[in-house]
Amino acid sequence: MKIVNGVATTKPERRADKTRLYNFTKVKKSRKWLKNILLSDSSSDEDDDEMTPEKMQEMLRIHKLQRQCQIQFYNDPQLHQYQYYSVGLLSNYDKYHDHHKQILGPKKKGPKDEQKKLEKKLMKAKLKKLKKERGSDELKSPPIHHSTHTLKVVKVKRLTPEQALVKRKRMWMSIVKKEVPKAQKQRTSTRKEMFSNARKLAKECMKESRRKALQFQRSTKDSLQRARRLTREMLVYWKRFEKVEKESRKKAEKEAQEQRKMDLELMEAKRQQRKLNFLITQTELYAHFMSRKVAGGNDTMQKEILQRLDDDDGDSKRHLEVSGGLVTDMKGDNYNSESMKNIAVKNATDAFQAHQAKTKSFDSGVVMRQKAKKSLDSSLSTPDLTMEEELPQPSIFEGKLKAYQLKGMNWLASLYNKGINGILADEMGLGKTVQSIALLSHLAEHHGIWGPFLVIAPASTLHNWQQEFSKFLPRFKVISLKCYKKVSHSYDLPTQQGSAFDKFERGA
């Protein structure tokens, strides 16, 4: 146990406290002796002896030797590797190993290291032999007889405090007169050398900064020119790109428009063909029912007749991919062959049943028989033109149709659906022009047919047609073309004035 600062501590506790104070993480074999010294107990409780002239001389000699060693250490570049040798133990990060490696470089292993190891082993073996031989010689040597006379004890003469003070003053005076001027001269020379080196370094720094500034100015000038050139090239590129893109878009739109015209024409042709097939099938079914009543038959003939209404084209929706990435999807019609077959069979059956009822009532009298025959002939010559449901007034038609005008528009629409031509033979002033315009608005709204429509009228009523269109159907574009009898004839129009129609688009 030992009392430190009034606290009793054991040796392991003191050792643990010292390990916390110092950084021993990177201490290797070369600095192990320093670690042992720092961890050992110091004899601090011993009383200091009085200052003697001999101790003073010894201290001055050690101080002088220390100065010489310091100068030698700082002047010798080989000893720079031992920087941070002991100071690194007092810091959190020990810089000794990094500094040592930086100066000496990486250690290279080679055949010389192995040779040195062998030499060390041989030296150790030789030392062991010598120690054994010396030990044996000491044992064999005769005992030494102590002499009877005693050595003279030399007494050191102690100086008085006044004499020691005078001697100390002389020594300090000699140091001040000899050592201080030398140190001052050395310090002034080193200071001058430091200032000269600083001036040289400042000049080099100024040259380097000027060189970097000139280089930066050149780079900025080049960057401005490069940026202008890049912007010019970019503008030229985007102008060319927009032009090419515009041309490709126009080309794609033109192709899509042409394809739409072709699809509309094809759809119109199919619709007319289906209407004709429906009328023919309805008539043949009626004839088949009549022949089956007279001669008898089976349903195979009825199936063959109904096959005329089958649509072999499949799906009528077409997808066209054109150049430029545009895809045109033409809206198909909602034709259903099965429903049309059912309607045709129903109409033929109804007509046949009506015929049977009329034939039964024919027995009541000749007059009734003739009337039944006339009604049958009229039903065969003119197909059923009644609409399943009355069509409302089109929303794009700006105006209010009267009841008889709405019936006239429905009659015209039924004629159009059946593919039959008709004539409005109303009296003058009942609105035949308005009914025709209402039919065109119905076709545009429900069937998507926006023209072109050709209206041929006398020159006296042409202005009236144009006014009616602008009043009731302003969404239509109306173009009036007048032709006088004196100037040209009807057979000259396709040859002489055909170019006048080229400037108008057909699908508008």
TrEMBL record:
Q: Does this entry carry the keyword Ribosomal protein?
A: no
Q: Which GO terms describe its molecular function?
A: ATP binding; ATP hydrolysis activity; DNA binding; helicase activity; histone binding
Q: Which GO terms describe its cellular component?
A: Ino80 complex
Q: Name one GO biological process term.
A: chromatin remodeling
Taking every annotated instance into account, which residue ranges of this chain make up the domain DBINO?
171-296
Catalytic activity, as annotated: ATP + H2O = ADP + phosphate + H(+)
Q: What is the top EC class of this enzyme, as a single word? A: hydrolase
- Where is it localised? Nucleus
The lineage's top-level taxon is Eukaryota
Alphabetized, the UniProt keywords read:
ATP-binding, DNA damage, DNA repair, DNA-binding, Helicase, Hydrolase, Nucleotide-binding, Nucleus
Question: Would the keyword DNA-binding turn up in this protein's UniProt record?
Answer: yes
Identify the EC number(s). 3.6.4.-
Q: Which residue spans adopt a coiled-coil conformation according to this UniProt entry?
A: none
General function of this protein: ATPase component of the INO80 complex which remodels chromatin by shifting nucleosomes and is involved in DNA repair.
The family classification in the record reads: Belongs to the SNF2/RAD54 helicase family.
Q: What is known of its domains?
A: The DBINO region is involved in binding to DNA.
How this chain assembles, per its entry, is: Component of the INO80 chromatin-remodeling complex.
The name this protein carries in UniProt is Chromatin-remodeling ATPase INO80
Q: Whose protein is this, by species? A: Lingula anatina (Brachiopod)
- Gene that codes for this? LOC106159395
